[in-house]
């Protein structure tokens, strides 16, 4: 079965696009990784745990992550990529209005609530500013049980047109610091693709490659490209 665009083989299927119920073309992805649950309470949960994320306005049951919570205990899938169907300014406004992102920690067997972790300062999230850290898990009785290790990162997906000038493209690229690059796409392969004259080129990259990639685009000439 073909993977949805932007979704990795081991990603959790996203329960919603963002903002929920907003229709429109795909603008970019928001990658959320719940890497690990770290227990600090003397009596941590004996059974495996899950983490559920529901976005403000979402009508589904949310996305369920399966981070490892004990040393040596294998976890399940920990990453989901949410399609974002609005521009960065509109998405920042949505995050600002939401205020707090709540992650519910629950038992795996019967989904009984254990505690919650909250992420604030969501309006700071942007392609150049991911949110990464450990966030306390608080019980219903306001006791700290542990911490969740979470990463929120915007992954850009942009369609370039032949009408755009390379210099403008490169200037825009330099504003973006978080994109993904297939390891198989080397500089030589990129040059070959760009020189081939095909109508569409698909590529992506990360911040350390920005300078070299901009030079390659200017040197080779860009036809039409997709970043994902």
TrEMBL record:
Any GO BP annotation: centriole elongation
Domain C2CD3 N-terminal C2 residues, every copy: 15-153
Protein's UniProt name: C2CD3 N-terminal C2 domain-containing protein
InterPro entries from the UniProt entry: C2_C2CD3_N
A Pfam family it matches: C2_C2CD3_N
UniProt GO cellular component terms: centriolar satellite; centriole
